[in-house]
């Protein structure tokens, strides 16, 4: 059995801490049993490892999430990279062809797909074996896990099971599915509960061969390399609409334990064991209020009840918890440049951005590179950079030449110059970019690891000596 964990989406309902670069599953606002902060993706990966599932798991993600996943889970985590975000059906199709073409998974093997940020008890992972058994015993096209509702929610989709006729002795641990209902209104939700409907938590399984046949029927390549080349031609559509609701036979395995979608500030703060993060000052009258502050200035809470305040360089949210999910309806500029990003080597914060009257863009960042980590060997065609080292020690490479660097050093990087840095101690520096267009695409990566960079440096030295 193989697992595909879906890591997509921007998590806009957790703005301003989440955005296209740092989605909700990467926010370190919950804590493990030792009281250490961890993200949702770290929590799921830890639980999978405890059940010895992590060796069978692959994470389907976009390029923008690669660094974050490697930073939080390690650089050996198996990733299947989407060339572009195209919703869940294309992502799962690409992952399935990868398992088939690159890993050699047989068509009869069961594949389970689930979100990377499911908030569940550790015991939940035992349900995956039941899901596989239900699929194989029922000979269904798909098997799903449905969560027993605790209230008539209008935020979740529902799975409506078929009522068993009297005398039916089929196994009790799964049921055939009659229909689906997406995010009903309050009256519909209450009626669904009377039908013993289950919350759809987005976890389902299929035989790999079944999905490959679906792709063939739609004229979609089943070869990973071919699908990768034609990926942008795929229609952006969810797996639920394109496959699940069209399947001839679907079964569901009920789950009676704890499950929650931490997709809003209201639900997320219910699982936080602290009421404040960062520089926060409280008075005694504040109740059921959470303040998350990533800024260097204090936030003072006086007499607030049932509120959430979240502040970052991307913005400040002040909302009642009950209404916090409505942030997606507000006229926020969702495409603005992220001001904070976590990378495989550390993180950076944007300090200032402007365009001069002459049309030159100027961007100032503060970067933190962890000890023994490095930035890639790269060059830029449309910008120059100036680095001022603030703290730490490391090695700097410029056009195949290495120098030691430390506090007070100023490094100039002209347009087209090859450069990289490695921290021997945690390294902090200020970077000023100047150019006609300051975009992520203006990065030509020549080498990623420090060993590869040193090979290029040695080759450059040999050419220089000749």
Automatic annotation (TrEMBL):
The lineage of its organism: Bacteria, Bacillati, Bacillota, Bacilli, Bacillales. InterPro entries: Man6P_isomerase-2_C, Mannose-6P_isomerase_type2, NTP_transferase_dom, Nucleotide-diphossugar_trans, RmlC-like_jellyroll, RmlC_Cupin_sf. Pfam families: MannoseP_isomer, NTP_transferase. Residues 345-446 form the Mannose-6-phosphate isomerase type II C-terminal domain. GO terms for biological process: GDP-mannose biosynthetic process; polysaccharide metabolic process. Residues 4-272 form the Nucleotidyl transferase domain. One of its GO terms (molecular function) is mannose-1-phosphate guanylyltransferase (GTP) activity. Signal peptide: none annotated. This is Cupin domain-containing protein. Gene3D superfamilies: Jelly Rolls, Spore Coat Polysaccharide Biosynthesis Protein SpsA, Chain A.
């Amino acid at each position: 059995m193989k697992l595909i964990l879906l890591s997509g989406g921007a998590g806009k309902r957790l703005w301003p801490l989440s955005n296209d670069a740092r989605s909700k599953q990467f926010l370190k606002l919950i804590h493990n049993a030792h009281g250490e902060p961890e993200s949702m993706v770290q929590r799921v990966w830890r639980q999978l490892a405890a059940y010895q599932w992590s060796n069978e798991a692959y994470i389907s993600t976009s390029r923008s999430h690669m660094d974050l996943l490697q930073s939080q889970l390690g650089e050996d985590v198996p990733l299947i990279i989407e060339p572009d975000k195209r919703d869940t059906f294309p992502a799962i199709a690409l992952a399935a062809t990868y398992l088939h073409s690159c890993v050699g998974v047989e068509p009869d093997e069961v594949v389970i797909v689930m979100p990377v940020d499911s908030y569940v008890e550790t015991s939940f992972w035992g349900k995956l074996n039941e899901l596989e058994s239900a699929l194989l015993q029922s000979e269904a096209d798909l098997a799903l896990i449905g969560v027993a509702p605790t209230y008539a929610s209008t935020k979740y989709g529902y799975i409506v099971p078929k009522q068993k006729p009297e005398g039916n002795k089929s196994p009790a641990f799964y049921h055939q599915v009659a229909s689906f209902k997406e995010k009903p209104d309050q009256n519909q939700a209450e009626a669904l509960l009377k039908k013993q409907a289950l919350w759809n938590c987005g976890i389902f399984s299929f035989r790999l061969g079944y999905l490959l046949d679906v792709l063939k029927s739609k004229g979609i390549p089943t070869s990973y390399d071919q699908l990768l080349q034609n990926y942008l031609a795929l229609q952006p559509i969810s797996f639920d609409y394109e496959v699940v609701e069209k399947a001839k036979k679907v079964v569901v395995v009920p789950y009676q334990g704890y499950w929650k979608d931490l997709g809003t500030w209201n639900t997320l703060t219910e699982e936080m064991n602290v009421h404040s993060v960062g520089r926060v000052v409280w008075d005694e009258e504040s109740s059921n209020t959470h303040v998350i502050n990533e800024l260097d200035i204090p936030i003072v809470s006086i007499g607030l009840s049932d509120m959430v305040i979240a502040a970052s360089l991307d913005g400040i949210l002040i909302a009642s918890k009950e209404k916090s999910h409505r942030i997606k309806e507000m006229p926020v500029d969702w495409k603005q440049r992220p001001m904070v990003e976590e990378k495989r080597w550390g993180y950076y914060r944007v300090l200032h951005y402007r365009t001069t009257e002459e049309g030159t863009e100027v961007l100032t960042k503060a970067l933190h590179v962890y000890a023994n980590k490095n930035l890639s060997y790269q060059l830029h065609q449309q910008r120059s950079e100036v680095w001022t080292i603030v703290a730490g020690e490391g090695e700097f490479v410029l056009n195949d030449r290495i120098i030691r660097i430390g506090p007070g050093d100023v490094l100039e990087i002209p347009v087209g110059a090859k450069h990289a840095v490695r921290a021997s101690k945690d390294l902090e520096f200020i970077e000023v970019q100047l150019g006609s267009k300051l975009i992520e695409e203006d990065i030509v990566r020549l080498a990623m690891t420090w060993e590869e960079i040193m090979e290029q440096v040695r080759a450059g030295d040999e050419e220089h000596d000749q």
